[in-house]
Amino acid sequence: MASGISSMAAILSANKRPAVSAACYQVSSVNENTAKKLCRKSPLSLIAHTESQIMRTYPAGMRIDSSNFNPVIFWAFGLQSVALNYQTVDSALHINHAMFEQNGGCGLVPKPAVMRDRQHMMFGRFNPWDKEFDGLHAINLTITIISGQYVCQNTNTGSPQVEVEVIGIPVDSSRQRTKMVQRNSLNPIWNDTFMFRVTFSDLAFLRFSVTDLGTNHLTAQRVIPLNCLRQGYRHLRLRSAQNQSLPLSTIFIYSQYEEEGIDLPVGTGAEDSPAYGSLQMVGKRSRRPPSSADFTRLESRDVIGSAPVRRRMFFLVIHGVVADEPSTILKITQDSTAQDVIAQALAKANKPVDTANDYVLIEEVQRGWDRKRLTDRNITQRILDPGERPLEAQSQWKGDGRFVLKKVADDPSSRAWMSSIRNAQKDRNRAKAMGADMQS
C-alpha cells in the first residue's frame, strides 16, 4: 500500500492531466490523512487524476471511537468513493445521506460541471482552497427562521435554539444561531434572519439543528443540499439525531437567494455608460420578509430615494493579460465597454490603469465551427473600438473565437501588424456596406 501511495503521488506531481493509458479499473484506496496531504499539496493534479481514475478514502485507524470526517472536502477534490463509519450516525453521515438523497438514493451523483465539463471556463483551474473564484457565480443566501413546531421530543417546556450552518468548501463554511426561546418547544417563535455568501453552491449543504439549551442536547436536525432548497415560505420537516423522520417536528422558514451582481449608482450616468472604477460588488444585504413596521416607514416618507441599478455579472475570458497564465477571467456586465475591460485586465495584472490607452482589445474569430480546418487563413482579427461592448461583439461570432489584450508598441513590426489588421477591418466594413447598398 505504501509503495502504491508513493507512486500515485509521483504521478500527481508529474502530470496535471490524467494518463490516457491508465486502466479504468485501477482504484487507489488511501486513508483520510494521506488524502488530506494530497489535497493540500496537489489540489489541481488530484482533481485532474480523478477525471479518469476512481479514488477511495476511508477513516484513519486512529478513530477508535468510530467517528467520521466531513466528506464534503474530499468530494470537492473529485474523490468518488468516500467511506464512512456507518455504525456512528453523526453530522457527517447526515451529509452523506443528503448528498445521495437528492438523486433518489441510487448511489450515484454527477460531479459538478467544473470538474467534468471541459467547456467550463473554470475547468482545470478550480482549487477548493481558493478564497475567490473568477469563473463561478456566487449567490447571496438569506434565511429567516420564523417559528417551530414540536422541536423538542417528549417535552413542551424545552428552551430551543436553532443553528443554521452552511457546509461546503472552506470559504463557504459558516454558521449562525438564533436567540433562545425560554421554556417553549411546542411553538417557539424566533424571527431571526441570517445572510450567507456561497461561492460554490454545487457542493454546499444547509444544516438546521435544534438544541435544547436546558439540557444541551440535540433534539432535531435536518441537512439538505443548497441546490434542493426551494425559495419562499416553507415548513421544513425535521429528523432525529439518528436521522429518522419526526412526524410532527418542523421549522417554518423563509429563504431567498440571488445571484451576485453589480450595483451601478443612479444619477451619475453610470447606469448608461459604466466605468470600471464605479463597479461595486454586491455584498451581504438583508432580504428578510417585509414586516408591518417596514410598510409604516415607507408610508411616512415623502420621497423614496432611487435604488441602484442592478446589472447581471458575466464572465469574459481574455488572453495575454498575465504572462504565465494562458487566459484570465474577468467579471463584467452587458454594458461594459472594451475600455472598461482593458482597465480591469490591467488592474488584475497589477499594471497601472492609467496606461490603458497603450493597449487594444483584439478579437480573433474562426470562420466556421470546424476545428479540424483551423488555420491562420481561417481566422479573422479585428480591433475593438474603445466604446464597443465585447459581449455584443461576441454574440456576432460565427465560429470559435477569443479576445486578446495587446500592447501597442513603437517598433516597425508592431506598427505594420496593427496597420494590416486595421486595413483588413476597413476592407470588411467596405464590403458589408456595398452588400447592404446592393440589397437596398
Main beta sheet: strand number and arrangement?
Answer: 5 strands, mixed
Percent of residues in helices comes to 10-25%
- Give the SSE order as H and E letters: HEHHEHEHHEEEEEEEEEEHEEEHEEHEH
Distance between the amino and carboxyl termini: 77 Å
Task: Trace the largest sheet across and list its strands.
Answer: 16-15-19-17-18
What is the CA-atom radius of gyration, in angstroms?
27 Å
Shape: elongated
CATH topological fold name of the largest domain: Ubiquitin-like (UB roll)
The level-1 CATH class of the largest domain:
Alpha Beta
What is the count of distinct domains? Answer: 3
Strand content: 25-35%
Question: What is the CATH architecture descriptor of the largest domain?
Answer: Roll
Low-confidence segments: 1-5, 267-304
Core attributes:
single chain; 440 residues; alpha+beta; Immunoglobulin-like; Ubiquitin-like (UB roll); 3 domains; 5-stranded mixed sheet; 4-stranded antiparallel sheet; elongated; disordered N terminus
Brief overview:
The protein is of the alpha+beta class. Helix content is 24%, strand content 28%.
Structure notes:
The protein has 440 residues and is of the alpha+beta class. Helix content is 24%, strand content 28%. It has ten helices and 19 strands. The chain has helices at residues 2-14, 32-41, 43-49, 72-76, 91-101, 113-116, 292-300, 338-348, 390-395, 412-439, and strands at 27-31, 54-58, 81-82, 139-149, 160-167, 174-177, 189-198, 205-212, 217-225, 232-239, 245-259, 262-264, 280-281, 309-311, 314-319, 328-332, 359-366, 379-383, 401-407. It has a five-stranded mixed beta sheet. A four-stranded antiparallel beta sheet has the order 7-4-11-10, with no helix packed on it. β5 and β6 (174-177) form a beta hairpin. The radius of gyration is 27 Å and the shape is elongated. The N and C termini lie far apart (77 Å). Mean pLDDT is 82; it is low at 1-5 and 267-304. InterPro entries: C2_dom, C2_domain_sf, PI-PLC_fam, PLC-like_Pdiesterase_TIM-brl, PLipase_C_Pinositol-sp_Y, RA_dom, Ubiquitin-like_domsf. Its EC number is 3.1.4.11.
